[in-house]
Amino acid sequence: MKKSFLVFSIGIVTVSILLIVFLATGTWTRFFSTETEEYQRPMVITPQEANPFLSAGNAGQTTWDESLNVKIPLEDGEIAIAVINHESEGGFAEEQFVAYMIASDTEKKVNVTYIDYDEINRKYRRLWNAHAIAARPETLSFFSQDLIGDRNNCIVVAGMNNRNEHTMAVFRKDPSRPIDRAFNKIADLQIDGSIIIQETGRSQAYQQGITNGQSFNIAAYGHDSSSGNILDQIETVYSYNPFSGQYEQKSVARIPGLQIEQQRLKELLNGDSGVFENFINDLWYYVSPRGTIDSMQYIYFDPSNREVIFFGNEAQQVFRWVNSTSTRYGLYITSQNISISTLRRRIDIELESLDSIKLRVSEDVSLKIEIIESWDGSYRRAKTVNLKESASSVRPAIDAQYDSLWGRIQFFENGEYTISSGNIDANNTLKKGHYVFFKANENDLLELRPNEANAYTVSSRIDNRTVYKVETIGNVLILSRVRLGTSGIQDLFEPPVTLTPVN
């Protein structure tokens, strides 16, 4: 009896130990789970800011980035570049489009994959892959848009290839294959100029979902090989053909450019982005199609500080200059807002003359904020603009010296200033930077942009980029610090600074 009891006791202890081990190691979850695949948290290789897209040797530097949250892990060596999320047709989950590159691909070609939710197996699956013709991820523009007008978004992959040509690939869901959810490539363009989507207004009935809207055309601008003028272009317009399901050539037109000394053009358009950056290093005013100057909208290109500053609608927007790529007619810039990191702006600059440029600016259209201003159009260099002296205009640059509590400030006509001596700093008696006088909401304003080396050493009142309202009493300037925002000009109620002209 005692022996049986002892055996029973040992058995109970053994079973208890095994049960504890079973629970502690999590074996029970695998035992009762019907899922045969082990779930892994997706890893996204995030580009470094200084070198936007890593080489194969740096592929091991991985970080988890919530802004590039891929639904399932990509294959080894696949690097996510951009992500588009949509609500799936069933409404239970999101579908996702991911632009990615392969780390071992020395040409850095862009690929696209489609990920959707499998309701039966209750997991995300990768259903479709395609190659785009863009081959430089740092120039990528990846977005969805209803190009056809049937409220079904197309996937647009735009960017530049290794020959510095603009490319655009457009994918549309194949209506004849609803089960496997494949996509057709309905446009595949590349050209040595630029490519734009020609958006047109759509009816209220379309906006309300009652009828379809008009399809958008795509225009490509390339070099006119039959002309001796480098700036002459050929415009080719493509329209959507509902019968073939493809974008097809609709029209071809010649666009003559200005006759400029060809040797100077070759120097500027020699493929060296630094040369063209130095050329546009200035303040540029918008010029309307009628030829009138809009002094309320202008752009300042600052390659030395790697910034592009937009002035318009009584507000200032500062973008970090991320990347420059030479094009046949100028420069393609990718930039990122310094306050809203998800707001990216791409600027395609074409040379019109030695004092004018043409801009085509695109936003990240997936960003869910309303941006109403348009920056497309022609711009003229500010120092060549003949602004009439009146109460409604202001000269952007002057040549004058003033004394102030900061010290002696010298304004130069090239848009630079210096501050010397005074009670600023015994160790830093000379400060330098850029400035611009401009007008907003009928107020004369002055912006000071100290050079990076002394941005925070001039004074507590002159930090990195400050704006002042300017009031004039005789030849004396009184500066009151303000802040420009979407709500207008806000006074910061700091003590004013008086600038007295030097005789």
Describe this structure in words.
- The protein is globular, with a radius of gyration of 30 Å.
- It has 503 residues and is mostly beta strands.
- The strands form five sheets. An eight-stranded antiparallel β-barrel has the order 13-14-15-16-17-18-19-20.
- It has helices spanning 2-24, 27-32, 204-207, 262-268, 273-280, and strands spanning 78-87, 94-102, 111-118, 123-131, 141-145, 154-160, 166-173, 183-191, 194-198, 217-223, 233-241, 246-255, 283-287, 293-302, 307-312, 315-326, 330-337, 344-353, 356-363, 377-381, 400-404, 407-411, 416-420, 430-440, 443-450, 466-473, 476-485, 488-491, 497-501.
- The chain folds into three domains: 56-255, no CATH class; 262-384, Lipocalin (Beta Barrel); 400-501, Lipocalin.
- The chain starts with a helix and ends with a strand.
The poorly predicted ranges are 24-66, 366-371, 384-393, 423-428, 455-463
Mean pLDDT: 76
Radius of gyration: 30 Å
> Share of helix among residues?
under 10%
Number of DSSP helical runs: 5
Summarize the structure.
By secondary structure, this protein is mainly β. The chain has helices at 2-24, 27-32, 204-207, 262-268, 273-280; strands at residues 78-87, 94-102, 111-118, 123-131, 141-145, 154-160, 166-173, 183-191, 194-198, 217-223, 233-241, 246-255, 283-287, 293-302, 307-312, 315-326, 330-337, 344-353, 356-363, 377-381, 400-404, 407-411, 416-420, 430-440, 443-450, 466-473, 476-485, 488-491, 497-501.
